Amino acid sequence: MNRRAAAALLSLWLVLSLRANPAQAQAASAPTIKLRVFAGGSGQRPDLTRKLLATYMQRNPGLLIETEAGGASSDLQRQYLSTVLNAKDPAIDVYLIDIVNPAQYFGAGWLEPLDAYLGEAATVLKPYLPAYATSNVIQGKLAAMPAWADAMFIYYRRDLLDKHGVAEPRTWDELAAAAKKIQAVEKQAGQPALQGLSIQGAPIEGAVCTFLLPYWSQGKAFNDANGKLTLDRAVAARGLQQWLTMVDQGVIKKNVAEVKTHDTNNEFKAGQVVFALNWSYAWDRYQQDADSRVKGKVGVMALPAVAGGERVTCLGGWQWAVSAFSRHKAEAAQLVRFMASPEAGKLLAIQGALLPTSAALYTDPDVVQAVPWFKDAAAGVVAGKSRPLSSEYGRVSDIIRTTTSAVLARTRTPEEGAGDIGSRLGRVMR
Q1: At 70, which CATH number?
Q2: Residue 107 falls inside a structural domain
Q3: Angle at alpha carbon of residue 102, lines to 99 and 105, rounded to 5°
Q4: Burial class (CB in 10 A: 0-12, 13-18, 19+), 54
Q5: Are 366 and 391 found together in one domain?
């Protein structure tokens, strides 16, 4: 047999073999593309991210998606991603970032604008909550897509408030009075270590909100629409003093400057706290974790106001971004579209109690049945305020949180702390 005949027979054999094995034919015609996704730390529920990615891979058999997770806080995650992206490493295609980070990552050239893949920003973001039109659009470009929303709420021991005839407080002064009443009676009953209120005072990202909440509640803006600092130092000092007064009252524990988010979580779950300031994801931890002693005893409410002020909360949430250094940007962008879809948001809400980014899901019957308090959460999320959006957010955050922690540790007075923040950020946010 000559070579030409042998080659013809070999070609015929390949065709017949592939017809007999469609899966092999598909694999031969559609080589697998690999994407790698950074899914955050345990607080960002990478377990649920993996469920969504598994669904997406089933629908896209030519795609293989690997995940990595890590970093107990948004600070540690930002440090890790900054190292990878600053090196222009293509190892990560899609990554999860905090709501405050799109401007910073866009300015650094680390993320791929999504307009060319998904469409014009105004059209793409129309179904989502209004905050994303600000946080995720940088210089007119679609920088990221919303994964899920977040906001700070007050969690409280509903059983203790009912037991002692205490109504939900509407101001911080009312909360302090309610906490002191419950603490005093429970101390006589054998619970001397019961905390009145747990907030985050360690120099972590949560301390940025600890600073901003009483400031905003007094009706003041931290910056204007162009990002320029508009800090009222006297108002800021009064806000910081509020927390110190509650420490002196025995409502907040003395070492508040060491308290991190997981400390608040663990102490509330252990039944050691009456009121706790925390993000929305904590609801699922209090109700579902095996070590929670407060299952079925938890209430949740909007944050109180300062006397004569307004009730306001600190917005959070997470966004999906495509790395500027990905070798598969188009495929990564389509994955991000799915991860930000109502279908994904519904799963995250029902199985993880993660706040939806679409207003329609707050009234979805399945979502409301799984997480009843969501029906009242939408108004609070829409009315919440975002932390300063700045390409220099890392510096902005560092100045606010370290100074706030120093004031709570009483190494700086509230007036000194407000002055430090004003003078230092005045040079950054100009």
Answers
A1: 3.40.190.10
A2: yes
A3: 135
A4: exposed
A5: no
Instruction: Going from the first residue of the chain to its last (430 residues), give the mean pLDDT of each consecutive group of 10, the final group possibly shorter.
Output: 42 37 46 92 92 97 95 85 95 95 93 97 93 89 96 96 97 98 94 94 96 97 88 98 98 98 96 95 88 95 94 93 98 98 96 92 95 84 84 92 98 98 94
The per-residue pLDDT for 23 is: 42
As a whole number of angstroms, the distance between CA 186 and CA 184 comes to 6
Helix axes 393-408, 233-248, angle to 10 degrees: 40
10, part of any domain:
no
| Beta pairing, strands 137-138 & 145-157 | unpaired
E-strand spans in 5-52? 33-38
User: Does residue 392 share a domain with residue 359?
Assistant: no
d(CA 105, CA 122): 20
Considering its fold, how many domains does the chain have in total? 2
**Whose CA is closest to 327, among 143, 91, 145, 119?**
91
Q: Is residue 402 part of a domain?
A: yes
Asked if residue 120 and residue 178 are part of one domain, the reply reads no
Which residue bears the tokens 């308290």? 259
Q: Cα–Cα distance between 297 and 158 in angstroms, integer? A: 5
In a domain, 22, yes or no: no
User: 41 and 130 share a domain?
Assistant: yes
156 token code pair: 């409280």
Domain that holds residue 417: 151-314+387-428
Q: What is the dihedral of CA 210, 422, 240, 153, to 10 degrees?
A: -20
Question: Is the domain of 193 the same as that of 138?
Answer: no
Question: Taking a C-beta distance cutoff of 8 angstroms, is the pair 104, 391 a contact?
Answer: yes
Residue 309 shares a structural domain with residue 322: no
Q: Report the relative pairing of strands 33-38 and 94-98 from DSSP bridges.
A: parallel
pTM for this entry? 0.80
